[in-house]
Design brief:
The radius of gyration is 22 Å and the shape is globular. The N terminus and C terminus are likely disordered. Strand 1 and strand 2 form a beta hairpin. The two termini are 27 Å apart. Helix 3 packs across helix 4 and helix 8 packs across helix 11. The longest helix has 16 residues. Helix content is 31%, strand content 24%. The strands form three sheets. Strands 6-7-8-3-9-10 form a six-stranded mixed β-sheet, sandwiched between helices. Strands 2-1-4-5 form a four-stranded antiparallel β-sheet. It folds into two domains: 221 residues, P-loop containing nucleotide triphosphate hydrolases (Rossmann fold), CATH 3.40.50; 65 residues, Alpha-Beta Plaits. The chain is of the alpha/beta class. Bound molecules: adenosine-5'-triphosphate.
């Protein structure tokens, strides 16, 4: 497992071929997962279900516990509390069985920069003791569009190509579950799009993917998402369900920059207004109580130079609102309040 996997026993290749059968049970099902580092509880009673073949997004501010959770799911960290299964195996007792069937892509590129692409993949294939190494490596090179660069040193690749190489290393042993920890951080939009097209292709072939991200557009490409803050799961469902569950009412206002700035200052903190956020030439004004929000904005709606329209809240609106209501908001363990 992982881009540079731990040495494990030989893995029999699973041959993903189309959607995963539901009869196998969920890919991930955990209840009450808890992890402490010293006195700090960084994952607190976390529960999650991920269906087989699903692309499940995992979002939350920096330090909210996403990586820690991923590491508990694949057996790299021992939970201090909670229970559950990953690919049908007990996450506490059967961590080795899980490791063999999981591909874990860490946040940092962890392959060898002074080896070529092909050498890196051959090394990983050896660690997995794959029987048909040459063929597996050739297939992975082709699948990820890396064949033309196979002799290039990994250290000379751009961020997007490095991520492709890391993904190729993760899928070399045909894992049933991919855990991807912010796989596209710092990667340009075209490379991100191509990476996500590949993730969708892998899911269509039967692989389950749990992927952490800070990008809203990536969250919207997931079948379902979970949002975590300060170690707590705050929301889970499809993007539409998470947005609807936020219970927010939202107005979008268009106008000139200076006018919008003045409006934002006037609305900030008014009763009924929970959030005022500029998005380019549009201001998003939201609150959990529709009538109170309407009352707050009423006096500005005839102001010249402003075009108001009631609209659905965006996913980002919903996340900011969730963060504001999070149990430890403003005094989280890291003292960080940034929203992904
Ligand atoms: N081995 C460790 N020892 C002590 N504290 C740790 C350890 N690993 C993580 N933490 C702390 O646990 C908290 C959760 O970290 P984690 O990396 O799981 O968050 P995250 O949601 O993945 O953050 P990011 O989005 O920045 O990657 C952080 O405050 C982090 O500093």
């Amino acid at each position: 497992m992982s881009a540079v996997p731990s040495p494990v026993s030989p893995v029999s290749p699973v041959s993903p071929s189309g959607p995963a059968p539901a009869s196998l049970g969920p890919a991930v099902s955990v209840r009450g997962l808890t992890k402490r580092f010293g006195p700090r509880v960084v994952v607190n009673g976390f529960s999650l279900d991920v269906a087989r073949g699903e692309i499940h997004g995992f979002l939350g501010p920096n330090g909210s516990g996403k990586t820690t959770t991923l590491r508990m799911l694949c057996g790299l960290l021992h939970p201090d509390g909670g229970q559950g299964t990953c690919l049908g195996h007990d996450i506490v007792k059967d961590s080795w069985a899980i490791k063999r069937q999981v591909g874990y892509m860490t946040q940092r590129f962890s392959l060898y920069e002074d080896l070529t692409i092909r050498e890196n993949l051959e090394f990983v294939a050896r660690l997995h003791a794959l029987p048909d190494r040459r063929q597996r490596v050739a297939q992975a090179l082709d699948r990820l569009g890396l064949a033309g660069r196979r002799t290039q040193l990994a250290g000379t690749l751009s961020g997007g190509w490095k991520q492709r190489l890391a993904l190729a290393a993760c899928i070399l042993h045909n894992p049933k579950l991919l855990l991807l920890d912010e796989p596209t951080a710092g990667v340009d939009p075209k490379a991100r799009r191509e990476f996500w097209n590949e993730i969708h292709q892998l899911a269509a072939d039967g692989m389950t993917v749990l992927v952490s991200t800070h990008y809203m557009d990536e969250a919207e490409r997931c079948h379902r998402i979970a949002y975590m803050a300060y170690g707590h799961l705050l929301a889970q469902g499809t993007v539409d369900e998470v947005v609807a569950a936020s219970g927010l009412s939202t107005w979008h206002v268009e106008g000139a920059g200076a006018t919008l700035n003045r409006l934002a200052l006037a609305l900030e903190g008014r009763p009924g207004v929970a959030m005022v956020a500029p998005f380019g030439a549009t201001l998003h004004v939201s609150g959990p109580d529709g009538p109170a929000l309407d009352q707050a904005v009423f006096q500005y709606q005839d102001q010249p130079g402003l075009a108001w329209r009631r609209d659905h809240p965006t996913l980002e609106d919903a996340f900011i609102h969730l963060m504001a209501r999070a149990p430890d908001s403003g005094q989280g363990p890291q003292g960080k309040g940034g929203v992904s």
